[in-house]
Write a structure and sequence with these properties.
It is a single chain. The protein is of the alpha/beta class and 345 residues long. 29% of the residues lie in helices and 14% in strands. The chain folds into 2 domains: 262 residues, NADP-dependent oxidoreductase domain (TIM Barrel), CATH 3.20.20.100; 30 residues, no CATH class. It has 11 helices and 12 strands.
């Protein structure tokens, strides 16, 4: 698949590249990247031809937007697409001298408050434009309206009501109708979140994180078909499970959402990879040191033709992904040389 090929995203009129750069690591999630390393990474992505960048106010409490914007505002705007998110606003802490941002190794010193109402969405959008230094973004994503962040179904229902009756969705629809944005999406971290949105809002796409990775694809059989029926597109935001499926967990990062109970199956679930990998490669990938846990429903063996057809339809609708760099500083501010006739990995 050509990583630079553009295709229509869901029901929108926006053509999005197959590959984009995710901005969470630029908020210093696990460790402090350093300004030079962060900016050099974004510059190198531009040099490789990456044309889609995703960020959010939550990433480093504004730091990711500042860093990505610092580079992108020096590039021709017609060559790039930018998405950011709404649902949180950054505010001055009560005690600025002693305040430390939670969950981010090097986040900026601002408190974060959830607000999915009209005023909160508009403030988040306008503040993001100023942090980015851009006078427009292309996509807005409703961020983290799920059980993992809000703790209970009652709290999720309250914020969904704020988005609906409190005017948050009206604000997003008005921005799209005025041409200020081209598509509206929702970020998804947990199974069960997609139906909450599909039943109430006419979204263009979902930005799907941990419910769908190369290891866990159970949502293909229940939640994703409802989206396909309505023409809702997908951006896959955690294909490699935050990097664990590429190189394993070399550090213990602070989780972005509260940890879920770990499966008791362990690596024994790897036998469900039948037909996909060799026995030797399975042993390498599921060594005793590996933290990977296969979902019991992830690979249930060869599916019937009807399921194959549904999955093929999903892959056609979701042929775009965003990947982020390692959160560990490389120790050098100079990006590697661009290799000719090579696509980014």
């Amino acid at each position: 698949m050509d990583p630079f090929a553009r295709r229509l995203l869901g029901r929108s009129a926006l053509e999005l590249p197959a590959l984009g750069l995710g901005g969470a690591p630029f908020g210093d999630l696990v460790s402090e990247l350093g300004e030079a390393n962060a900016l050099a990474t974004i510059e190198h992505a531009c040099a490789l031809g990456i044309g889609y960048f995703d960020t959010a106010p939550w990433y480093g409490c504004g730091k990711s937007e500042h860093r990505i914007g610092h580079v992108l505002r020096q590039k021709p705007r017609r060559d790039i697409l930018v998405s950011t998110k709404v649902g949180r606003v950054l505010v001055r802490p009560a005690d600025p001298a002693s305040y430390r941002p939670p969950m981010w190794a090097g986040g900026l010193p601002f408190e974060v408050r959830f607000d999915y109402g009209y005023d909160g969405v508009m403030r988040s959008y306008e503040d993001s434009l100023q942090r980015l230094g851009l006078n427009r973004v292309d996509l807005l994503v409703i961020h983290d309206l799920d059980l993992g962040y809000h703790g209970s179904r009652e709290a999720v229902a309250f914020h969904l009501d704020r988005l609906d009756r409190g005017g948050g969705w009206r604000a997003l629809s008005a921005l799209k109708a005025a041409g200020e944005i081209k598509a509206i999406g929702a970020g998804v971290n947990d199974r069960g979140t997609i139906p909450d949105f599909v039943d109430r809002f006419d979204l263009d796409f979902f930005l799907v994180a941990m419910p769908y990775t190369l290891l866990d694809q159970a949502v293909l059989d229940d939640e994703f078909p409802r989206c396909l029926e309505r023409g809702i597109g997908f951006i896959i935001g955690s294909v490699f499970a935050s990097g664990i499926l590429l190189g394993g967990a070399r550090t213990r990062p602070t989780p972005i959402v509260p940890p879920r109970p770990r499966s008791r199956r362990g690596c024994g679930g790897s036998r469900r990879f039948a037909g996909a990998t060799t026995r030797r490669s399975r042993r390498r990938r599921c060594s005793s040191r590996s933290p990977i846990r296969a979902s019991p429903r992830s690979f249930p063996g060869p599916p019937p033709p009807s399921i194959c057809a549904r999955r093929w339809s999903f892959f056609a609708a979701a042929s775009r992904a965003i990947c982020g760099p390692s959160s560990r500083a490389s120790g050098s501010s100079t990006p590697p040389r661009r290799r000719r006739n090579k696509t980014p990995e």
